[in-house]
Specification:
Blueprint: H1 11-18, H2 24-40, H3 44-54, H4 58-73
């Protein structure tokens, strides 16, 4: 049996329905502080150090996340085999 339910609600209504906290003010504060920091950065090294601090596992985490996204978006459903490996008759 397959049942499909369609809800027509705003993201705010969905958040309240699921009991999730309202983090809008926290997000605004975070973005404002991050913007101030990035505007005050005077070198690429400062930005790289900041990225290493805030990213889980530093650069390795960023590379792993990037490869995950690349695999998901690149259609990795063929098991890593290229289309040229098919037999030609």
């Amino acid at each position: 049996m397959k049942v499909t339910v369609e809800l027509d609600c705003t993201p705010e209504e969905a958040r309240r329905m699921m009991g999730l906290p309202d983090v809008a003010k926290l997000n605004e504060t975070y973005v404002k502080e991050l913007s101030k920091f990035l505007q005050g950065a005077s070198s690429v090294e400062q930005l790289q150090n900041f990225t290493k601090i805030i990213a889980p596992m530093g650069e390795a985490g960023i590379k792993m996340f990037s490869s995950f996204l690349g695999g998901a978006m690149g259609g990795g459903s063929n098991g890593g085999k290229s289309s040229s490996s098919k037999k030609k008759d």
